[in-house]
C-alpha cells in the first residue's frame, strides 16, 4: 500500500476527562442528538450520563442490567423527552426515558446547589426504566436507532441482527430477525437517508439489509477485511458541501466526474478491524431507473428488478494502528475520520484530491464504475493528527465526534473527539489546525 | 484411570527439568537479536510530550520507572496454573514452555505498550479444553502484569486441530470480557489459578 505520509497538520489536545470516571472498563459513549450530553456504557452494569458543558456526571442509570452494559443509543427526534436504549451482556436491551423540562442550560445548574430537593422531584429527575427487549440468546454487542427513530437495530453473539419497531410508547414489535452472519455480530449502523442497515461481524464480513416486499433481506455482502470487523459507520448526509468536495472541481473534468459519482453513490461506509486497518466502501450507483433516483428519494414506479447492491472498497486509510482498531467515526461537519483501538492511539484522517502533477490517467475507467477501485480514485486519505497513549497505557474501546458545548467553544459548530477507554475514563479532545 | 478425561495419560515433565531463574543453562530467546548483555545500559524509553506519564504504571511499581519483565517471569506466572483436568501444572505438562513466550517492546518511542505473546501446546490435538487453558493463561497475565502489557495467547501452530478458531476466540477482547462474567467458567478458571500464589 503506497500511501503518502505527510506531516500532521492538526493537533489533538486534551480538553477534559469526564468526572468522576467509572471504576471499571467503559465500552462506548453516545452523544445526545440535541442536548449537550453523552451516555457511556459501563462494565459495572450502569450507564453514566455526563454533561459536555461542565464535564461532570449528571446521572447514573443503574438497576436494569445483570451484566456489563455494552452499548447505548439515543433515540432521535424525541422533543421534550430523552429516550435511551441500552444493550447488555445479559442478552437484553433496555429502554429508558427522562422528561426534559426547561432549558438545556438547566442541566449544568441543576445539581450544583440543588442537591437537597425533595425526593419525589429527584425521582422524576432520573431516567425511568420503561421496557425491556428480550429475544437475543447471548450478549448484545451493539444497538442503534434509525435516523427517523422508527426502528431500533440490535445485534448479538448469537449471530443475529434484530430490528424492532416502536408501534406506540413501550410497545415494540420485532420486524426482522436477520441470521446471515456466521459469527458474533459486533456492530450495527443505519444509513443516514435510507432505511438501510449495516452490520459488522466476527465472521470478517459486513452485510447490508433493507426491506423488500415487507421482508427485511440482505442486499449486500462486503468482504475484504481478513479479520473481525469491529465497527461500521455511514458517512453523514450532504457531505459534498462540507468535505474536500466543497471547493468544487475547479474545472477539472476528472474531479467533477468523481463528485458526480459520489453524489450518485450516496453516503459511504467506514469500517475498522482486527486486521489493524480502517477502510472506506462505496456503493456502485444503479443506473437502471435513471440518474439521481437513488439519492433523491423519489420512488420509482417501476420496481427495481433487484434490491441487491454492490459495494466496493474505495480506500484503505494510511495504516497507523499496530493492534486491533475497535472504533471509527466520521465527522458530520468536516468529513474527517477518527479511529482508535487496542494500541491506545487516536488517529485523525482527511480526504483530499490527489496532487494533479503526479496524477493518474483517467481514460476509460470512470465510465465503467464496476472496474473502479481505490487504485483509480482521484482522492487520497492522509493522516492529519495522531496521539499516542490517549488513555495512558489502556485500550480505547470507542471514539466518536460530538458537538463542543463548553464555554471555551471557538465556533458554533466546533466538534470535539470523545474517547472511551478500559481505564473507565471518557476523555474529550479538541482538534485544531496547527498554527491557526 | 478416569475415562471421561480427554487425555488420560499426559506426558509429565520432571519438576527439576522445568526452566527456572536458578538454572543459567536455559537459553533465553530474544526477538531483538541482542544478547541482553547491554540492556541495562540502554536508557528507558522516554515519554517526552506524554501528558499522562505520571500514572502509567501506578498499579505495579514503586518508583514509576518501567521495570524489565522477562520471559522467565512470564513463565513463572503461568507455569504454576493447574490443568483443568489433571492435578498437574501447565508447566509440568509442557502446555506452556519458556521458548514459546515472546516479549515485544514498545513499537514506537511515543508508546509504552509492550506485547506478551504466549503460545500454548495442548496435550492432545483435539483437546476442547484448549480454549479454557488459553483463557486461564490470559486471565492470569492480565491480573498479574501491569496494564501497559497487551497479552496475546495463541495455540502453537500445528498442535491443535482447530487452532485458528481457538486463537480467534482468545484474541477477541469482547468475548473474553463476556466469558469472565460467566460464573461457571470463572469457577473453573479460579480453580486453575488457585495454585498460582
TrEMBL record, chain A:
One of the record's GO cellular component terms: cytosolic [4Fe-4S] assembly targeting complex
BP GO annotations: iron-sulfur cluster assembly
Pfam families per the UniProt record, alphabetical: WD40 (PF00400)
Key word Repeat present: yes
Keywords assigned: Repeat, WD repeat
First and last residues of every WD repeat: 62-96, 133-165, 178-209, 318-349, 411-436
Similarity comment: family membership: Belongs to the WD repeat CIA1 family.
Protein function: Essential component of the cytosolic iron-sulfur (Fe/S) protein assembly machinery. Required for the maturation of extramitochondrial Fe/S proteins.
HAMAP family to which the protein is assigned, alphabetical: ciao1
Protein name in UniProt: Probable cytosolic iron-sulfur protein assembly protein 1
Underlying gene: CIA1
UniProtKB/TrEMBL annotation, chain B:
Disordered: annotated segments: 1-34
The keyword Transferase belongs to this UniProt entry's keyword annotation: no
SUPFAM superfamilies (UniProt xref): Fe-S cluster assembly (FSCA) domain-like
Gene3D superfamilies linked: 6.10.250.1280, Fe-S cluster assembly (FSCA) (3.30.300.130)
Domain MIP18 family-like, chain residue ranges per copy: 71-147
Bias (Basic and acidic residues) ranges: 19-33
Pfam families: FeS_assembly_P (PF01883)
Alphabetical keyword list: Chromosome partition
Keyword S-adenosyl-L-methionine: no
GO BP terms: chromosome segregation; protein maturation
Top-level lineage group: Eukaryota
InterPro entries found in the cross-reference section: FSCA_dom_sf, MIP18, MIP18-like
Family from the record: Belongs to the MIP18 family.
Protein name (Swiss-Prot/TrEMBL): MIP18 family-like domain-containing protein
Organism: Aaosphaeria arxii CBS 175.79
Source organism phylogeny: Eukaryota, Fungi, Dikarya, Ascomycota, Pezizomycotina
